[in-house]
Amino acid sequence: MNPAGLAGTQRLFLSAALLCFSTSGLAQTVLSATAQPAGMELRKQEIAQCLPGEISTWADGSDRAALAPSLTFIYDNSAAPVWFDRSVVMGALQKAAAAWSECGVPARVVPQADAGGETVGAIRVQWSQTGSRNNFGLADVGHRALWLGPGAFLMLEKVNPQAGPATLQMVVSHEMGHFFGLMAHSRRCVDVTSYYTNPQGQSCLVRGGAAMPKGVEYRAQLPTACDIARCRALNP
Ligand SMILES: [Zn+2]
Question: Domain span at residue 227?
Answer without folding.
Answer: 3-234
